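hiii, so i know i said id send this last week but things got crazy w the move. better late than never?? heres the sequnce for the chain we talked about at the cafe, plus the structure i predicted for it. fair warning i was half asleep when i ran it
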Amino acid sequence: MALMTTTTHDKALQRYRRLAWITLAAVYFLILVGGSVRASGAGMGCPDWPTCFGTWIPPTSESQLPSNYQEIYAELGYADTRFNVVKTWTEYTNRLIGVTIGFLIFLTAIYSWSCRAHDPSIFKASGAAFLMVGFQGWLGAKVVGSNLQPGLITIHMLMALAIVATLLFALAQSRRGIMESQPVSSIDSRFEKWLYIVLGFTVAQVAMGTQVREMTDFIREAQGEDLRSSWVEAMPWFFYVHRSFSAIVLFSNLWLARLLIVSLGWQHTLTRLTLVMIGVIGISVLSGAALGYLGMPALIQPTHLLAASLLFGLQFLIWMSYRHSRDSSPTDTNSPVGSGALERG
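okay and structure toks below
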């Protein structure tokens, strides 16, 4: 009976993990789409919410709208409203994807119910993520209602990262058994300190990035879309700090990867996750350089945003996975953690 119960729990966890990975990938896809909407200036392609130009399915031509629609929306506070079929359907598609992902997160919460006996926190975190999606929808309505106020857009983005972190927490809890089977008793004793250092660097870099993104919106409004190539010249000092700091983020994470490779080898999950993270940082650095030196190309902006979001998620997952491996690893009271790594080095 005990074996049957264990097998049932394992199957429930496997099903949950499979769906949780799909849901996380979908959330990141939405972040990419949202970044594309913002970079293309399609954020007000639908000047109302949840409808679009007053209907659930937006028009395909300006002739389908009332002749005085601009006056109508001007009275609502949108003086510059002008129907653009590409921007309207870009924003509408973004909303449809958001609704679809909301259903995915709801399904993830349902699947987590069968995991509550294994770990109640999986169900609690999955349920919390679903509730956060509801708040995110309300926040999206406020963003549209504010005519894309930069501060609200930043909060909207940070809320998306909070949803990612909550889903990742639930996923990591469902993977606890996997990580417990991969001990880290031989890990370099400096790893934990460096992990917290790189986490701090990432938070600082993302914080500066949000400020750069808000400043980009102000410059776009002041100079217009046609003067993209001159936007960098109007950037304040923290843009250059953000750009230069990326090198510190890259090299500190390379050092973190070296500590893992030397002490745990190439096959350990922590090492593999860290190497993927290095690749993501490389994409972030290259896309950031392209933005700075190639005149802020619109196609690069969502790539840079996605890379930053992936970096945040990977570091959070590495931190959770390390904690689970560490807590299950036997410790040698006669020698410091990491002595095995030093002997091999």
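btw The chain has two domains: 1-174, 183-345. thought thatd interest u
miss u guys!!
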